[in-house]
Amino acid sequence: MLLKNLRPVSKTHKGDETVDLRIVDGIIKEIGSGLKEEKGEESHDFGGAYVSPGWMDMHIHLREPGYEHKETIKTGTDAAAFGGFTAVACMPNTSPATHTRDVVEFIIKKAESTPVDVHPIGCVTKERKGKSIAEMADMKDGGAVAFSDDGDPVYDSQVMRVALEYSSMLGVPIINHEEDLALSRPGHMNEGRVSTRLGLDGTPGIAEEVMIARDILLAEYTGGHVHVAHISTKEGVDLVRKGKAKGIKVTTEVCPHHFDLTDEEIDRQKFDTNFKMHPPLRTQEDVDAMIEGLVDGTIDVICTDHAPHSIEEKEVEFIYAPNGIIGLETAWSISNMRLFKTNKLDLQQLVEKLSYNPREILNLEELKLEEGGTANLTFFNTDEEWTFDKNNVRSKSKNSPYLDKKLTGRVVGIFNKGQLVINQLR
User: Considering the entire predicted model, what is its pTM?
Assistant: First the structure.
């Protein structure tokens, strides 16, 4: 296959040159200018789109097994491909929970034919109940890349200590949903001026920060690696920043909605449940801190926490709606608009947070955009304007705050596992 007129972005390419890529048997055989199509070779002209090593979303919910009415591995990976992700790591709050090797292997097997690599994250505790450690070593041997009870925190400090000790022996991180339940519930949005005005129970930022502080201390004590899931508060970012400065093994991620939207949207959008997620949308000060953390390197990864819910589940009163939004299809556009177009991050820095860092954290092989490298690629642009309407949702669910919004920058397609996917707007 010959892929023409692409601008490479990687650790060694800034996107300021145009090249052609020749791919043979899933390997980049040749990179050059003006390459000629060979006999029997399929050719595609990308018209100057950027190409980078394939992106990875290390925090999504595929819902299968058990909640196929929300999402399936097939529809979830379709959404991932549309969003530019050639790999995803899926959280274990399935039914049954991903707490044994057979469930890990089921997910991997089910995803084999898709153009997206699916890496299961196993449970920290059996059935995600927070009581006893799950079979970590066996799950890792089956293909699990990390452990988490996401959806709920590992609440018991002794259990978290043991989990960090075990996982450090296995060389993988514990990804914790940072929430002090006693402080946070029954909150339905960020606790602050807006929640008071609207008369809704709020979840204070301190509920997230207390758990982040605990986990950083436990990581320091055990030598384990804690990864802070979907960070959302200014003080939380500062805690991670200080932990890194001390040499503690702590990494973190942020979702596009947490560096784009604030809790004011709940009022502006008249309690639209597509703006309800956990952690909740915070204040402008917190949004600014997310961007600052991305710029200075405190925040390692951009992820989505893609959390599909059916229309019936979301079309209820705000306080009764489940937390969570889909995000795979819009992640690049929001990142482009809020970070690249505002000159906060350049394309190399964005690719670092979308491709290199998630793979490094999960101990996966680094992708190299060079001759002899694996052809695992994402194609994207920064200027195309498009509308994310229901026709363009690839997920099985539609619960997005960006529905019917005009966006700038779109993923053109991906190449992975010998499959070229070209994204067409509907």
Answer: 0.97
